[in-house]
Structures are given as C-alpha cells and as structure tokens.
Recover the amino acids of this structure.
C-alpha cells in the first residue's frame, strides 16, 4: 500500500503503445472531452476497469449464492451509487 502522503500511480500505460488505432482513438477522446493528455484517458480507463472487476465479482457471488445479502448487497449499492 505504501505511505498515504506519497503519490501513487493512478493509471496504467498500454501494453502496446504504438498501435495506430489506439493512438487515433485516444487522440479523439482527448479532443472530444478537452483532456490535457492521454494520461487522463488512461486514469479514466483504470477507474472503469476497477468498477467492472468489482461488478463481475459481485455477479459471480450472486450466481453462486442465488441472491445478494449482507455485505455484498451493501457493496453492490455502493457501486451503483
């Protein structure tokens, strides 16, 4: 985890940074939404990736148990909110 006062990287760079399609798509996102740089695009992708991962985990738990209850229901409500 590290020290709370230290800055931590909030994004992950693409595995293949020189793909023409990805470069063009990211450039369009930067222009469309008025972002400063592609790092902001990567940060947003990272945030979405965390939400998707949590949602998939909750769906798997609900499929196994049949219904959300207790802590998993609270966590699902937080994700939706």
């Amino acid at each position: 985890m590290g020290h709370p006062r230290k800055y931590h990287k909030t994004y992950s760079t693409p595995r293949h940074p020189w793909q023409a399609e990805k470069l063009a798509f990211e450039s369009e996102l930067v222009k469309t939404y008025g972002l400063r740089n592609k790092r902001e695009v990567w940060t947003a992708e990272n945030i979405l990736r965390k939400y998707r991962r949590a949602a998939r985990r909750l769906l798997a738990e609900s499929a196994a148990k049949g219904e959300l209850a207790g802590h998993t229901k609270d966590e699902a409500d937080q994700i939706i909110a």
